[in-house]
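@channel sequence for tomorrow's demo:
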Amino acid sequence: MNLAAIEHPRNRQAELGQFLTAPPVADFMASMFGPLPRTVRLLDAGAGAGSLTAAFVSRLCVGNMGVRAIEATLYELDPHILDELSETMQECQRRCAEAGIRFTFTIHSADFIQEMSARLADDLFGPQPPAFDAAIANPPYRKISTDSAERRALRSVGVETSNLYTGFIALIQRLMVPGGQLVGITPRSFCNGPYFRPFREDFLNHLELRRLHVFESRQAAFRDASVLQENIIFHAVKGRNQPREIVISSSSGEHGDITAATVFPFVEVVHPRDAEKFIHIPSTASHATAKATMDGLSSSLASLGVTVSTGRVVDFRLKNALRKAPERGTVPLLYPCHFNGGTVHWPKLEARKPNAILDNAETRPWLVPSGVYLLTKRFTSKEERRRLVACLFDPDQVKAAWVGFENHLNYFHANGNGLERSLAVGLYAFLNSTVVDQYFRRFSGHTQVNATDLRTLTYPDRETLQVMGRDMKALALSQDGIDQLVTKHLHAHR
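C-alpha cells (generated this afternoon):
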C-alpha cells in the first residue's frame, strides 16, 4: 500500500488555506532528509490526511537509515479529516512494526499558531514547548490581516508576517533542535518583495538553506486545486551558518519524473550585500545568462535620477470623482487596460474601468503633472509572456495638464515630474527585454511586480539608456528587435 496516496477531497480548502500534497510530491519531500537520529521526534503541522508523515514513514521503513523509533506530533484543525488522519497514522504504526521501528503518534485538533505561540511566549512560566528533530510541512496558505488573532499571536513571539504559511514556518523553526531538519512546500512568494523581508531575515538567521526545488509548471504540486502561486520545496537545517553551496533542482512534478539538479554558490542565491535578502532561484541556463548580464550593470535608479512609485489613485477611495468618459473638469485616469503595445490607448470607452477623474482640490494630491512617464503593470496574468510589462505615456498623444495613474500601475518619474524622452524610451527597451524578464523570474515566483522589486534591479548607466532610447525608432518593435537593440548597447558600453 502506498501510504502517501491517501488523499481527501476537502470543500473547505479555501477557507482553511490548505491544499493537500500530491503523492509524488510527498514522496519526493520525504527523500530530501539527510541522516536522522535513532529516535526521531517528527512534527507535521497542518497535517491534512497525513500524507506527508506517511511518506516520511515509508522512506524510513524502506531505506534502513538506522532509525529505531519515530515519535510523530501532528496538528490538524479541520474536524472533517481527523478520522482519516487517525487511520493513516494507524497504518504507519503497522508499517513501522513490520520494519522493526517503534511508531507513536499524537494528533492535536488545535490551532497550531495559537497553541505554539502561547507555549513559546510563556516558556518561562508554562510548560516547555516541544522540541523536534525533523519537520515536514505543507502549511496552510492564506493572508492574515494586521488585526487578526493569528497576527497578534505570532507577534507575541516576535514573528511579523502577513501570511499563514510563513507564520507556520517561523514557529516550526523555533521548535527545532540545533541540527534539526525541515522540509517544506510553500508558495515561492516569500523569496522576494517587501512584505516578506522580516520573514526572510528570520528564516536565514536561524535556518541553513541546503536545497531549493522548483516546479516547471505552476500547478504541478497541487494539480487538482486552482493554485495561482508557484510553489517551491526547501530543505533547511536549524543553524546559523549558511553553506558555501546550495543545490537547486527542478522537475515537472509528475510521478517518476527526472529531477535536474545543479550546485550553485550560496552567494548567487542570497547576495551578501542585498539588504532585502531576496532569494534568487536560478533554474535554467537563460536565468544564469541573465544574472551574468545584470551583474555587469552598476547603476541604480537613484544614480539615474529616477524614482519608481506605485500609482497614487486608489479608485474606491475617490469613487465619486471617477467618470466613465472624459468631460469638462476631468483629466485622464490610466489603468493597465489602457496599455496598447508599447503606448497608451486612451480613452478606452468600451472598457469596464473609468477613463477620467475630476481635477479638484480633493483629487489633485493624487495626480501628477503631465510629462513622459514609463509605466509598468503591477500584476500580470499567468498567460502573459512577460512578467515585466512596460508602456510609455506620451503627453503628445494624450493631451492634459495633469494625469492620474491608478494603483495597479507603477510609474517611473524624475522627482514627481516626467522623464527626459530618450531616457524613458531607453528604460522602456531595457525593462521589456527578455534578459530583464528572465532575471526577474529568478527571484519572483508570483505575478506581482512591486515598486521595491524595480528599485532593487541594476540598470545601464544614463548615457547607455539615452543612446538606446535614441536608437529605438519605434516602440512597436518585436521582442527579437528589442532584445537585439538592448544586447547591442549593453555590449557596446562594457
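heads up for whoever presents: Confidence is low (pLDDT under 50) at residues 1-17, 218-228.
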